[in-house]
């Protein structure tokens, strides 16, 4: 979809392709700079019990919303434990990794700004 074709529409995560992440977690691009010409990117992520995503950082600010499950972000200077209905702000450049710490899947919505390529 090009920027000229942008329009309001329903987006169904189950119809988007999943991409694996190091550590076993996966995510799907819901809205992106490349796909919709937006200046933000939205991912829907799944981390199953026992899974993680490895240490990394981003060049963009990130806001994460926990839809379900309980998890823990490990940071260089501590940790953030989170659960359903909570938001996490991850400033650009912050090194982190994420763990599912519950018996149920962790489902997250991550919003990056500016948009990722």
Q: Return the CATH topology.
A: Jelly Rolls
Sum up the overall morphology in one term. Answer: globular
C-alpha end-to-end distance = 14 Å
How large is the count of helical segments? 1
What spatial order of strands do you see in the largest sheet? 1-2-3-10-5-8
Structural class determined from secondary elements: mainly beta
Which CATH class applies here? Mainly Beta
**Total strand segments:** 10
Number of domains: 1
Average pLDDT reading:
92
Stretches where pLDDT falls below 50 for ≥5 residues? none
Most strands sheet:
6 strands, antiparallel
Strand content: over 45%
Task: Spell the H/E element sequence.
Answer: EEHEEEEEEEE
Structure explained in plain terms:
With 117 residues, the protein is mostly beta strands. Helix content is 3%, strand content 47%. The protein has one domain (32-113): Jelly Rolls, CATH 2.60.120. It has one helix spanning 33-36; strands spanning 19-20, 26-31, 41-47, 52-56, 61-68, 71-75, 78-82, 87-90, 96-100, 106-113. A 6-stranded antiparallel sheet has the order 1-2-3-10-5-8. A 4-stranded antiparallel sheet has the order 4-9-6-7, with no helix packed on it. Strand 6 and strand 7 form a beta hairpin. The two termini are 14 Å apart. The mean pLDDT is 92.
């Amino acid at each position: 979809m090009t920027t000229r074709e942008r329009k309001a529409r329903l987006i169904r995560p189950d119809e988007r392709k999943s991409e694996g992440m190091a550590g076993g977690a996966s995510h799907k691009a819901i809205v992106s700079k490349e796909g919709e010409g937006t200046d933000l990117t939205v991912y829907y992520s799944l981390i199953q019990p026992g899974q993680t995503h490895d240490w990394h950082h981003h060049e963009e600010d990130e806001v994460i919303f926990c839809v379900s499950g309980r998890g823990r972000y490990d940071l260089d200077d501590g940790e953030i434990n989170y659960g359903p209905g909570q938001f996490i702000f991850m400033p650009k450049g912050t090194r982190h990794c994420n763990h599912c710490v519950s018996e149920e899947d962790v489902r997250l919505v991550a919003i990056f700004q500016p948009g990722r390529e």
